[in-house]
Amino acid sequence: xxxxxxxxxxxxxxxxxxxxxxxxxxxxxxxxxxxxxxxxxxxxxxxxxxxxxxxxxxxxxxxxxxxxxxxxxxxxxxxxxxxxxxxxxxxxxxxxxxxxxxxxxxxxxxxxxxxxxxxxxxxxxxxxxxxxxxxxxxxxxxxxxxxxxxxxxxxxxxxxxxxxxxxxxxxxxxxxxxxxxxxxxxxxxxxxxxxxxxxxxxxxxxxxxxxxxxxxxxxxxxxxxxxxxxxxxxxxxxxxxxxxxxxxxxxxxxxxxxxxxxxxxxxxxxxxxxxxxxxxxxxxxxxxxxxxxxxxxxxxxxxxxxxxxxxxxxxxxxxxxxxxxxxxxxxxxxxxxxxxxxxxxxxxxxxxxxxxxxxxxxxxxxxxxxxxxxxxxxxxxxxxxxxxxxxxxxxxxxxxxxxxxxxxxxxxxxxxxxxxxxxxxxxxxxxxxxxxxxxxxxxxxxxxxx
Length: 450
Known about the structure:
It is built from 21 helices and 8 strands. The chain is of the alpha/beta class. The radius of gyration is 26 Å and the shape is flat.
């Protein structure tokens, strides 16, 4: 995510930090480098010009130039201005979320071009809202795209949402009105309305969207845009803002956007904030967009809050405490290891988790080849063991190792390696607990990172 921009900015700011004292020439050079980095990241030219002018004015202030650590002050200014650029404010939670109506259902109208990911993100948003205890319905108003209704029914079924559809021959405006009535009868808390898109912004698209909006009076209108399209996404958002006012943006494919131009430009150009980010293909790869956390990620400062939230959401506290007890008593088994691995995988890939940790050298991280498939191989090996073998690996002799390798589709060498690493990990855990250490064991060492 934003890899190219992140590398350039971190390199520039590292150079600024290396100066014991800053001169105006130092600041000017840094601003040139930042300007080039942003332009190469496909950030809107006007946005780049205003951003660098603001940072420069603040960086040349007397408080910075005479500070004990002026370079660190410049980094702080860039961080704050990046946060403001994306619609946030440092030090306060300004993330925008859905405004819920006092009388159910809260109606959310989804808009966007064809191919932007509206239908999938209806499911992702529904899953997030269901996690908040909401009963969700989805209205199928895209009657033009082939199989759009079938896709929505599949996605809706996967997340446990009611899907209201009348087929591809019905009028979208009438479907929307009917779906609201159905949603009221079914006591839904939220109704998400999936609308049709076009390949480009045109009068037909806007007219239909306007009719649906007038008929159902949504409480929230969300525009879905593809981060990978860069300034095209910003231009689309600008056109929608002019003709069909929306409340906020769902940015899709943000995890694949190495440049970041759309995310950094859209708030400044349209005045509308990014509210949610789709960060993967799975339906649970969807999160509230926090401008301050994103600025921290871009500048290599980690994202501890998101990591904590993921852990709180995915890791069972009682199970974690029980594992800690077993560690202290040296009773940790392969079954416990398997449970821990499953909890870790719920939080996302190990590379993404490491990327959220502050102080991790991104360049060093690139050189570490974390093979996520190794987790699948480890799981297969452990599942090929008998319950007795998982509880007491010492009984796993040569014959048993051959059977486990055959059952897991791996080699005897791979089985040997896992058993050896598990034994070493248990020794390390024993030493840690003897010294009063706490916490979950680090399974990343079991991946054989190369």
